[in-house]
Amino acid sequence: MANGDKTSLADRVGEVGERVRASQAWESIFRPGSPFKKGYTDSPRNRSYVIMNNVLYHLHPVKVKRHGVRLSYTLCLGGLSFFLFILLTITGIFLMFYYRPTAPAAYVDIEALSTSVAFGSLVRNMHRWGAHLMVLTVFLHMSRVFYHGAYKPPREFNWVVGVVLLLLTLLLSFTGYLLPWDQLALWAVTVGTNMGGFVPVFGDQVKFVLLGGVEVTGATLLRFYVAHVLFLPFIIVIFMAVHFWRVRKDGGISGPL
Amino acid sequence: MPEIPEHLRRRSAEARAKALGVPREQVLAEMGLAAEGETPAELIEEITSAVQPANPDTSIPEDLQAREAAARQSAVGDFVAKAAATPAAKPTPAGAPAEPVPVVEVPAPVVEPEEPAPAAAPAAAAVPAATAASGSKIPEALLRRSAEAKAKATGRPVEEVLAEMTGGVPVAEEPAPVTELPVPAVAEPAPAAAAATPPTGEQPAARAPDSTAGRTTTVTAPPIVPPVGTPEGVRPQRLLTVVRARAIQQVKAEPTDKVSVWPHLLLIEFVALLAVTAFLTVLSVILQAPLLDLANFNLTPNPSKAPWYFLGLQELLSYFDPQIGGVTVPGIIGLLGLMTIPYVDRNPSTKPSDRKFAIMFFTFFLVASATLTIIGVLFRGPGFNFSYPWSDGIWFDDLKDWISFE
Ligand code: HEM
User: Fold this and answer.
1) Is B266 on the interface with A (CB under 8 A)?
2) How do residues A154-203 score in pLDDT, each as one tens digit?
3) Superfamily name and number for A73-249
4) How far is the CA of B355 from the centre of ligand 1 (A)?
């Protein structure tokens, strides 16, 4: 390292880094096998630890079938759906700081967000396009699962869970559609809920429950808001948990064909 | 390294021998274990595991052992005796003359498996036979219950069955496994002769049953000559259990080509995640999300369109009666139909060439939804009437600030 009194800056930084990584605090944060831990080496054992000892990664098994990691098999569509959901959650929380779900305030808030909040416009755009993209990826994911016959035993039930996820994704997107409270929102939701009214037998009831009345009002806005930011995410997270869990319990990714 | 208890190693050796199909003795030798008296562990284990003596090496005082054996014999007597007798009946090369099942107290089971000491066999067989004989009086109540069950199953009168069971007529339909049991020499009129045949090294007759060892093995008490006091036709043997003979550990794992999630999968996921984030960010910089005028209940836009993922449905609504073709069929039935696909499609193959119909069906569904959606997005103008985007403009407010033809 240092030769005499000539200690370079890089050396010193490296030394500090070494010391930090040797500290008790650092040691306590990272569990055994973490690549961030001092002295990590690439070994089969550590590769297992990376997965097993991390709360996020342990959604994964330690090993997967080789063909399963080929991009061309899953096209990453399920994973991307999930990732988009995370992105939507993050951007959505940001939006919630600036949004009030009442008829007079909602529109003004969105307008202000787009014009006078730092990155407000960008985050709103990401949230909106991300939502459209998620509907698309979920749909494509379903298609790829079908074409692989990946819904066949033992994965039948996970397909059913998947259909529920598709429905929930659509509902999340639809409830979010109303929130800007502009002409697009109002009338798209009016058309949408009118279609709900055509449901046989219970049509009117379905519509009433959706709207919180007989037509779109401020009550509908509150209802859609709560469903959008709390109720539906809560439900979809549960179903996603079951979905991922079943992917593993049903023997990992299907195939190869 | 921690010492692995001998009985575990022995069991492991047995499992391995079975899986690899090599003689047990060879595996034992490889593992540095002396071949002891044959222990057809899987056969008897389930029955006697509870009463199996612990490690024979542990030194339990002799008087205690004797007391335990006596207690055990009085507790499980007949039952275990029969189980113990089984190996004697099974002419596997090692036989079980030296079987260390508790009742048959054989202190030093050192008989070489390949050459069973001729004298030991009849002796060992005699013990359980005697025990079984004395204990095989079947209580009246049990006999009756059995007869009733059988009568119910065969649809004959109870009395007749009972008479048959207690009378002289041999029961015709024996449980299959019992009859499959290679009839052991012991059952022959001259058991001693069979068992005492001097080992010729080959023992062809005795080896035959081994070929079935990998499959289901039946554990029964030996068909002994009906002892006095047992009604004719009632065989004093019971089917104790049918044990699938297979290794305790699944030694042969399916060879699969697997890779570590870290780094292989996580790297791909990370790259995909970055790519999507980048894509979405760029998209959001370029494309401004629409914000039209404040919601106005008195001003209905023309056309009014649902969000794009419902536009296919809305499109259908313009063709069909809303109750039937509009919402019910595609929405409700479609969703339920989607859910039941795995239960309707019973074809187990995942090969595309085997699933032509399924693929056609789903492709039709995809193409239809895409077509309807595209029509709804691009080809519907005021009054939801048909319009051409190139001449009449596009009414799709989601992309209002992006594509404006009007
Ligand atoms: C919010 C929506 C969804 C998320 C986040 C999601 C996520 C995932 C993920 C991460 C996987 C692992 C494999 C892959 O990436 O392809 C997966 C597999 C699977 N998904 Fe989804 N999914 C969703 C919706 C659906 C839908 C709508 C269906 C079908 C109707 C479905 C059916 C399945 C099935 C059957 C598997 C197992 C596939 C296999 O083993 O090859 N999922 N999902």
Assistant:
1) yes
2) 899 999 999 999 999 999 999 999 999 999 999 999 988 888 777 777 77
3) Cytochrome Bc1 Complex; Chain C (1.20.810.10)
4) 21
